[in-house]
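User: My collaborator and I are trying to settle a disagreement about how two of our proteins should look. Neither of us wants to argue from intuition anymore, so we agreed to look at predicted structures for both before our next call. Could you fold the first one, then the second, and keep them clearly separated?

Assistant: That sounds like a sensible way to settle it. I'll keep them separate. The first protein:
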Amino acid sequence: MTRDAIPARPGDGDGEDGRGTPVGRRVVLGMLGAGAAGVAAAPFLQRAYDSTLGAAAQKDPTGLTGLLPAGGGFRYYSVTGSVPHKDERTYRLTLDGLVRRRVTYRLDDLRRLPQTRLVRDVQCVTGWRVPGTPFEGVRLADLLDDAGVRPEAKAVRFTCFDGAYSESLTLEQARRGDVLVALRMQDKPIGHAHGGPVRLYVAPMYFYKSAKWLSTITVTERVEPGYWEERGYDVDAWVGRSNGRDDAPTT
């Protein structure tokens, strides 16, 4: 069952998992710019996304493969050299911490829960945007209610099966109706390069908050800065109102 979508607002969303330090990724991209044309010309990168571009993206933390045809406007970032693949048999999502009961979900378990579909712009803090991108999944608030959040809880921490990435939200932010544990993107199952089979989707924040390859949701006493916050990004990543920007759309 799919719930009614929350109306889209121009500019909501954001780009993939980050950019290194606030200056570092731009420096790297500048250094690699001269080579980008040569990479773009490589014939094998023009084949189908799932079989070739997606695989190349996993070896390209700079995101340059996202500039190629079939990239769909996305830049593909990973903070590790490789990420294991999870499927119907091996994927598990655990919700633990300051809850009344620890819960573990399989993919089928998540699919059986009420689904919410959102259509928003994906907006990266580094500047690129993919407009009108559908995401579908379970509202994080529903999973928190299912586990029973304890009174002393104030925040939620997310960790990922790449073994390195993490993110956090306040409990109030996590309970928003536009924060999903996403199973589908662009009306199809989320592929590995996009953080599948399950990723976080925080619609009103820059996309580094939408952690890929989600494996654990932990309810905590305080917000713990995530991977990119520890490297200079804002903890509260509202689109247009954070990370030195003041260009939020009028709503």
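The second protein, kept apart from the first:
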Amino acid sequence: MRPLCFLFLCLLGLSAPLALVAGPPKPRPINPHATPEARRLLAYLYGLRGKHTLSGMHNVLGLMSATTDSVQRLTGEYPAIWGGDFGFADSTHDIDNIKYRPLLVAEIKKQHQRGAIIVLSYHQANPALGEPTPFEGGILSKLTDAQWQELLTPGTPLYQKWAAQMDLLAGYLQQLQAARIPIIFRPYHEMNGGWFWWGGRPGPQGAAALWNQLYKYYTQHHHLNNILWAWTPDKPTPGVETFFPGRDKVDLLGTDIYPRKDSAAAVYPQRWYAAMQQLAGGKPLGLSEQSVLPTPAQLAQQPYVWFMSWGKMLFNANSAAEIKRVYADPRVLNAGDVTKGLK
């Protein structure tokens, strides 16, 4: 706002609107040492806000790119985002078997070379139990309040177990950094729910403290600078803000939205998008997990910067025609569009 305009408003007894004074947020990573590749990706995502939505597909560790390839066979387009996970299980739950981790870096390099943006999730095993672990009773488990405090206290046995798990993952992320591949990392997702061991703990000493602990450990101890940090709660029901570490602690925001059980309510209420937009404060906002695809009309009303379908759920929750229609929508960008846009 020009000084004379501001003076005129003051004379009238009016305040200058905050948005005009502060200006829109700039694509500045929270990590001051972020790699050029991470900075370029973040700037690209900022440029999509309100205009375009990146298509995305999650792939389970044991099947690598099977669901991404299924989308390409159906639509003729590769999704713009390739999603993956580090796994947690053994052969009893082979699709998330940690024995496949050594194959992950090569697959990510292949997908990145093809033009995909990489999003990595992590269903971390409860540090008190270790890995491999089952989903029920391992990922879906609890820590006592005393264990939670121990986890957040450097030097304690439980902290050391947690750090050993994160050291293991850091080795893979360091290989990707050496290959100059930026990663959108979404640890401790759906923390506003009570199902995962890291979830259901609001406030500054809750899930937000664990988020901050991991950020500090990865940036200061492991010097991982190729990461964009994506905070992705479950559907933004009231109270979601009490789990938020703050805009200065996240690069991106997202929300995981699945149809509510035993309910005929709309899958994507406009109020949820508005709530997440308010938290984001101008930072890129994604639909970080979903089964039912938002329609082109819904994406026009709720212009998420990306969506990521959760594996085979895409094909169970949508018809082939519905999937094709979304992937062909002019608002939706696929892998070929990203290759052009990031040049």
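Some points you might bring to the call about the second protein. The longest strand covers residues 117-122. Confidence is low (pLDDT under 50) at residues 1-22.
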